[in-house]
Design a protein that fits this description.
Strand order of the largest sheet: 1-2
Distance between the termini: 25 Å
Number of helices: 8
Order of helices and strands: EEHHHHHHHH
Shape: globular
Largest sheet: 2 strands, antiparallel
Structural class: mainly alpha
Number of strands: 2
């Protein structure tokens, strides 16, 4: 069975079945594995995994840092300031959920684009500046809707 992308980039089988929605529907909680990793992974490894999905610039943006060299320090066990670790763990949860179904460039585009599930707000801005409880929940729900094909 071959896999193709339609005009809009949706992954489909040769028969036209939307595989992304099918795969997401098969898992009642497509973000559960990402949640476990976000909670259990040591911070330096989490930062490395996040950078591999969304890149250094977006990781630095979420952390509200101008000097991306701080990422190198975090990779070598330096502790971040304030609530940065919580925000990066939440961002990893969201990014890893999306990355199960799409390539990193799609995940990055989703994070920086206006999102109709979030009243046309930008997910990465909410992850950086929003209320980590309320807005974090909204961004996670928008990511879940996206992987479900909604």
């Amino acid at each position: 069975m071959g896999i193709v992308r339609d005009f809009y980039g949706i992954v489909k089988s040769e028969k036209g079945t939307n595989l992304m929605a099918t795969m997401a529907a098969a898992k009642p909680r497509p973000d559960l594995e990402a949640h476990r990793k976000a909670a259990a992974t040591e911070f330096p490894q989490l930062v490395g995994a996040l950078v591999s999905i969304i890149g250094r610039k977006l990781t630095a943006y979420v952390a509200s840092i101008k000097d991306a060299r701080a990422i190198d320090r975090w990779l070598h066990n330096t502790t971040p300031h304030k609530d940065v670790e919580r925000r990066l763990r939440l961002t990893y949860h969201v990014a890893a959920t999306l990355a199960q179904f799409d390539a990193p460039d799609v995940v990055q585009a989703w994070l920086i684009g206006l999102n109709p599930e979030l009243d046309d707000q930008v997910p990465i801005s909410l992850l950086r500046n929003g209320d980590i409880e309320a807005d974090g929940k909204r961004v996670l729900n928008a990511a879940r809707a996206f992987v479900a094909g909604g």
